[in-house]
Amino acid sequence: MASNIGRSSSNTNKGRIPWLKWWACIFFVYLYGPIAVLIAFSFNDNRIAQVWTEFSTKWYVKAFSNEAIQNAIINSLIVAAVATVCATLFATMAALILSKGMFKGQTLCLGIISLPLLVPEIATAVATLSFFAAINFPLGLTSIIVAHIVFCIPFAFMPIRARLAGMDETLQEAGRDLYANDIKVLWHIVLPQLKPGIFAGGILAFIISIDDFIISLMVAGAGATTLPLYIYGMIRLGVSPEINAVSTVLFLVSLTLVATYWFISKKNEGSNYVH
Amino acid sequence: MNKSIPAISVNSVVKHYASNPPIVALNNVTIEIQDNEFFTLLGPSGCGKTTLLRLIAGFEQPTEGAILLYGDHLEGLDPNDRPVNTVFQSYSLFPHMTIAENIGFGLKMKGQSSDQIALVVRDMLALVKMETFGNRMPNQLSGGQQQRIALVRALAPKPKVLLLDEPLSALDLKLRQAMRLELKRLQKETGITFVFVTHDQEEAMCMSDRVAVMSQGELQQLDSPQMIYERPRNRFVANFIGDVNLIDTKVSSENQNSYVCSHNNIEFSVNKTSQHQVGDQVTLAIRPEKFSLVSSAEGLLKGTVVDSTYMGTDTYLTVKIDDSTELEVRCQNIDLDQQLPTIGETVGLSVPNGAATLLED
Amino acid sequence: MEIKLPANPITRRWLGLSPALITIFIFMVLPIALLGVYSFKPADSYGGVEAGFSLDAWIQLFFDRDLDDTLIFDSIYLQIIWRSVMLAAIGTTLSFLVGFPVAWYIVQQPPERRDILLLLVTIPFWTNLLIRAYSWILILGKNGMIEQPLLAMGLIDDSLEMMYGNMAIGVGLVYSYIPLMILPIYASLEKIDFGLVEAAHDLYADRWAVIQRIVMPLCLPGIIAGCILVFVLSLGDFISPSILGGGKKMMLSNLIQFQFSSARNWPFGGALTMLLLMLVAFGSYFYIKASRKSAYLEK
Ligand SMILES: Nc1ncnc2c1ncn2[C@@H]1O[C@H](COP(=O)(O)OP(=O)(O)OP(=O)(O)O)[C@@H](O)[C@H]1O
Ligand SMILES: [Mg+2]
After folding, report:
1. Is the ipTM reported for this complex over the cut 0.95?
2. pTM
3. Which ligand sits nearest to residue A2's alpha carbon?
């Protein structure tokens, strides 16, 4: 093919502005600086969180031997695990239906599924609270889990649907041609191909659930404290090195999950060589 | 403008692209493009034509060497500071502006008043006979129409030099032929120097005042279309433009203006277009249509027809003159009753004086 | 035994969709509708609502009831709403001013570096907002990273009081949501044919003119998407005002949360929530309209 003079090349001077690089540098320092400070101070020996004395891991030891924190972590994990499994399952089922053909009400269904993305969290939180009160639903871990499932569905849904959209339909036809019935096609052909999408969706749902604060704050009963709720409680009491330590761990968990998600979806892109 | 100063001088330009090892896109290219000339850069894909154009336009900087515009160094000038405009292969019309806004963009950037711009836009639309299209959006135009707009958009600011990078390659054959004439007309009407890039030799032949043939980042020959065809300098040019028969010969004697080269005791007299010694192995190029068929007793060459293909305007014969040499011969089909030799027949071929060209390599 | 999917496509469709749809419907659509209904009911002072119909909650938005039951115009809640809108607007503007050049920078990088920079922009979006807001206390707070060196050098001799004000909330909002400004802008910048930039350059446009007349108009859909996302999320933000604003400078969401906790005025909370939802719906409507309008820019 003839190359064209309008094509961009990476080593020209085109729209380049000299200060742009510095601007971007400063931006990334701004984006990560505060977190870096937080992580650094979590290893600070001093009780006064912002005065550096020497390196120590004692706040980690202290924080994680605190029973309340342990409980909060366990609660968070239970909520996130159950919510992730349910939301991913529901999202997968919905995505399988919604990606196939057009039908009346499809847009409406898509709209309802993405609703939790559009409604501000505080609105969902207070609405869910009043609803639980109206139906006398006891507040506790179960209520948190139910609320989390709701807003995890769209996050699980997005990557699954994207993966389905990139899938080669002829494979299913080939399967059907080779005497597989619907459920066998689903099990042996569609789901294996969909696996990276489902996994990515599950990761997003898990991240969102484990980080959630506002909705948990409103629908948690006494004794059902999740990690972000516990951290919030500590923050209200003032800056402390334990918060830094717990926050660092939570941050690293999210970081690991995001990175995993990123690599899965990068690989997905690579393997979608159809067309 | 002073006629003696070239519109563009490309002086020993080298262009490397960063890579490991570096890609040599242009290797020591020197070209002078005259004022008011329709100049064509011709060469196969990847030979560096676009690179040269981008260097002139200012999108890239030469690694070595200099480029001058009417005697002024262009070094360090951004594209927007060079009185040179480009017609892009993909047109690159701004999709969010009307046709009139597209055409007026350059003038607006130069700070002209909107009244002046409106006048120029009208003239430009008239120039390509699209007066009524000013208010349309680019995506409401056909490919050929977009092409014309891209052309007048680049002409509107009255550049000193217009650069065109394969502007016709996206058009279908008929439109391409019509646009060739139109481009030629526009060049004459505006008097602007055109630098036209193509890999289509026919396009280069029919429009250009002069053609620069390039290959692998190097200039192979710079001449009028006729000279490029009739007197190719080397194997590459001879092969790239039109069809050619290459005959291996040895220089057997030398006169003041010509050599006598022989191949199996057949002697050709050729002009001294390059320097060789008696006894050197040299290659001659003869275009297939230069031969004429004569009876086997006459003629400089004698051979057997091994293949014959009817092509409409011509019939292509393959004539084997010895074990290692087959020649392609083209006979024009003048009328139906014409008697052409059949396969297996022995024929004689005559070659007019000066039909053979001595190649440098 | 062989499991079979229902043969009827309609049955199958509902079977597949119902878990997701019903969950969201029951635990989101219905509760919001319920809250809307609550906003027209009298408040129960122990939380919850009483039977009957009352416009009190909506009246309370604008008026205060005097002792003799006359309504006096009262702007205290309007002020909070206004502050929320203003802070969200300022946060959005700042995010745009900071984020656009960053997106433009990222687009110009070679592909591998682009991916890494995008990942770096994305990570904060997926990490806990609470922690991110809290980390700013370490920076802005008393004895924080900004004050410490200034105090030590003797440039200031008292706290700058950067925390617990509109400035701190603004910083928190920008910090929280700027990835959502950059990502959509990046996505539409990436689609721009760079040939157009070169063409404009060739036609005497300098860098600023190229950005202003070619790049910005062409990535308008991304800019609008980014601005609306950041605006809507900032408007409903709870964490920045409660952590960095110290709960003193309320925003709409703190006010709402307050009604359902200490104040125990559910109808008023419901009315405020409806107001927030209306503002968000208005924003989304504007977004859809604007993106339709610029649809012709897509190739
Ligand atoms: N930005 C770039 N980075 C690296 N190499 C490049 C770049 N642009 C061009 N090249 C290389 O430089 C050489 C010349 O490219 P150029 O685009 O000038 O060719 P061309 O003659 O215009 O070809 P075509 O007829 O296909 O358009 C090619 O080998 C090409 O791969
Ligand atoms: Mg080219």
Report:
1. no
2. 0.80
3. 1
